[in-house]
Write a structure and sequence with these properties.
Length: 313
């Protein structure tokens, strides 16, 4: 039988953090977690939207246990504040969904001076995971899911290594680079956790082509792909946010998950979530460690997984 949300075991008492939980796939994930009685922490930039969404979910699901903490993944200071607030309220985290992202934005930078898409989608989640991993390690079999995208396949050879280049900006290539980084980060973090003897695991999730506002209204460098055309394509071949959330829900609740797996729709843009082994090229394998070290350098941190695991015991 195809995997569905009904296959999620009851999550009563489990704490889940969802970045970008106020719309699209993130909101669908929040709803499903609340339906299964998890306590959900939504991380979002916009307090007004988050408060409204929280009220809507609580109205739909009276049993929902949900809170909001302000989080801007384009700001290292905001991520630090978020981690402090979460740590003050919770001694441990069961599940971290690195879900939020920006798509094909005009050229811009984060508060800390990084290209916006790479800085938000990858570096923001790399730093958030660095800050929250000690809490995840407090739980037996903690789980982390990094949301990637099929767009990762569009990365041109060598582009990830050259991601800070100030040459001609390509919004879709920048997005693809950030999404490939999400996948590579998940694989490398899982390998380091396994090597350190931790029970926590990390996998990646590709939601497929979802009928979300971000997909339908993303700006494009192609003149023929106007927003009306983009919306029409999304409506024609996309699947619902609820279905698009299933890969990351399975990635964090599948009892057989050994980590380092890619969960994606069975078909290119839709279908039930399936688990696929990630086959990396030689170039990707060399990129894993380089990406980790570059991310540490960019953020001014040392992400010592082995030391964090040892400290959690």
């Amino acid at each position: 039988m195809p995997w569905s949300a009904d296959d999620i075991s009851r999550m009563t008492g489990r704490v889940a953090v969802v970045t970008g939980g106020t719309s699209g796939v993130g909101l669908a994930t929040v709803r499903e977690l609340c339906r299964h009685r998890a306590h959900v922490i939504i991380g979002s930039r916009d307090a007004t939207v988050a408060t409204r969404v929280k009220a809507q979910v609580e109205q739909e699901l009276p049993e929902a246990s949900i809170e909001y903490q302000q989080l801007d993944l384009a700001s290292k200071a905001s991520i630090s504040d978020f981690a402090v607030q979460v740590g003050a309220r919770h001694a441990a985290i069961d599940v971290l969904f690195n879900n939020a992202g920006v798509l094909a934005t005009p050229q811009s930078t984060t508060e800390d001076g990084f290209e916006l898409q790479y800085g938000t989608n990858h570096l923001g989640h790399f730093y958030l995971t660095y800050r929250l991993l000690p809490l995840v390690l407090q739980k037996e079999h903690g789980r982390i899911a990094n949301t990637t995208s099929s767009a990762r396949r569009l990365v041109r050879a060598g582009s990830v290594a050259d991601r800070h280049s100030r040459l001609r900006y390509d919004p879709w290539q920048a997005y693809a680079i950030s999404k490939k980084a999400n996948l590579l980060f998940a694989i490398e973090l899982n390998r380091r956790l396994v090597a350190a003897g931790a029970t926590a695991r990390v996998s990646a999730a590709d939601p497929g082509f979802a009928r979300t506002k971000m997909q339908a209204t993303a700006p494009s460098r192609h003149r023929w792909l106007t927003r009306p055309v983009s919306k029409a394509i999304v409506q024609l071949i996309g699947h619902s946010p609820a279905n698009a959330a299933l890969p990351q829900l399975r990635a964090t609740t599948d009892a057989d998950d050994a980590g380092g797996i890619l969960y994606r729709p069975r078909f290119f843009s839709s279908g039930p979530p399936v688990a696929k082994e990630v086959r990396l090229s030689d170039e990707d394998e060399s990129e894993l460690v380089d990406l980790w070290h570059d991310s540490e350098r960019d953020l001014g941190i040392t992400f010592d997984v082995e030391a964090m695991v040892a400290a959690s015991r």
